[in-house]
Write a structure and sequence with these properties.
The protein has 223 residues and is mostly helical. It has a single domain, classed as Heme oxygenase-like (Heme Oxygenase, Chain A, Up-down Bundle), CATH 1.20.910.10. It contains ten helices and no strands. α7 packs across α8 and α7 packs antiparallel against α9. The C terminus is likely disordered.
């Protein structure tokens, strides 16, 4: 019998959050094209702010890499995020979002602070654990939505990006690093789950944005 890898075990242990995110009305609206344009525009700005922090966290992990091979892994992953940010620049033009004026929302700042604090204070393997949920979750969402997309709509490009043959290998590369370098301990489990909580709260905040104030987040680190 084949035992699951660490990244597989972490992903399976957090299926409640993965499924809650997939079933969230924001994500389902992305899937069928019904999502309100204002909500998506807000999300684009927040996600661009998040991705800048994501790139910085990768860069910090690269700087702390104990070997040249590990440095190259994080450098390659940083390049992938920069390409993703370029796509968000295109989204921003299409949806009328001024990325230079984006102010991080109440669900965005805790997530970016968590990633950057981890990257500054922890070793590269723990940083990878903190970042792996985003990569795996987005691949999961993209692939799940693509499997049920009946016809093109305004959010098809988003689905295409995260269901593509280019994105999945990036998620796998980061997970391979987690499997090879991270320890299976309480810190790893708590770090991974908190990142998953942050992901769900990120979509939740975008969903409620246009009401002029967001509802309290539904998930907490203790869940």
């Amino acid at each position: 019998m084949t035992h699951p890898t660490l990244s597989q075990a972490l992903w399976q242990a957090n299926q409640d959050l993965a499924q809650a995110t997939l079933n969230h009305p924001f994500v389902q609206g992305l899937g069928d094209g019904s999502l309100d344009r204002a909500k998506f525009a807000y999300y684009v700005g927040q996600d661009a702010f998040f991705l800048e922090a994501f790139a910085r966290a990768y860069s910090l992990a690269a700087a702390k890499a104990p070997t040249w091979d590990i440095f190259q892994v994080f450098h390659g992953l940083t390049t992938g995020v920069l390409e993703e940010l370029s796509l968000h620049g295109s989204y921003a033009q299409d949806w009328g979002v001024d990325l230079a004026s984006v102010t991080p929302g109440h669900a965005t700042r805790p997530y970016t602070d968590f990633l950057l604090n981890t990257a500054w204070s922890a070793d590269p393997s723990t940083t990878a654990v903190a970042m792996a949920p985003c990569m795996r979750l987005y691949a999961f969402l993209g692939q799940s939505l693509a499997a049920h997309q009946a016809q093109p709509h305004p959010y098809t490009a988003w689905i295409d990006t995260y269901s593509s043959d280019q994105f999945e290998p990036l998620a796998q590369q980061l997970e391979a690093f987690v499997n090879a370098q991270a320890a299976d301990n309480d810190l790893t489990q708590r770090t991974y789950r908190y990142a998953m909580v942050c992901e769900l709260n990120f979509f939740e905040a975008a969903w409620h944005w246009e009401q002029g104030g967001v509802r309290p987040t539904r998930w907490h680190d203790s869940d």
